[in-house]
Amino acid sequence: MRKPIQQSDSEVPVSIYRKDYAPPNFWVDKVEMGFDLHPIRTHVATRLFMRRNPDRSENDLILFGEDIKLLQLRLNGVDLKKSAYRLTKECLTIVNAPDEVCLEVETTIAADKNTTMSGLYVSNGNFYTQCEAEGFRKITYFPDRPDVMASFTVMLRGDKDAYPVLLSNGNLIEQGDLGDGRHYAKWEDPFKKPSYLFALVAGKLVCQEEKFKLQSGRQVLLQVWVEPGNLDKTQHAMDSLKKSIRWDEQRFGLELDLDRFMIVATSDFNMGAMENKGLNIFNTKYVLANPRVATDTDYAGIESVVGHEYFHNWTGNRVTCRDWFQLSLKEGLTVFRDQEFSGDLVGTETGRAVKRIEDVRVLRQLQFSEDAGPMAHPVRPDSFVEINNFYTVTIYEKGAEVVRMYYTLLGHEGFRRGMDLYFQRHDGQAVTCDDFRVAMADANGRDLKQFERWYSQAGTPRVSAQGHYDGSKKTYSLSLTQSCPKTAGQSKKKPFHIPVAFGLIDVQGGEVPLQLEGDTIVARTKILELTRESQQFVFVNVEQDVTPSLLRNFSAPVILEFEYCDEQLAHLLAYDSDPFCRWEAGQRLAMRRLLNLVSAIQKGVPLSLDILFLDALKKTLIDTSLDPAFRELVLTLPSEAMIAEEMKVADPQGIHQARQFARAEIAQYLKSDLLQVYQDNQTPGKYSPDALSAGKRALKNCALAYLVEWAEKSTYELAYTQYQDAENMTDRMAALLAMLHCSSALDKVYRKTRNQVLLEFYKEFQNDALVIDKWFTLQATAPTTDVTQVRQLMQHKAFSMGNPNRARSLIFAFCNANPAQFHCADGSGYEFWADSVIALNKLNPQVAARLARSLDRWTKYPKAQQTRMKAALERVAKTKSLSKDVAEVISKALAI
Question: For the Peptidase M1 alanyl aminopeptidase Ig-like fold domain, which residue ranges apply (predicted)?
Answer without folding.
Answer: 459-562
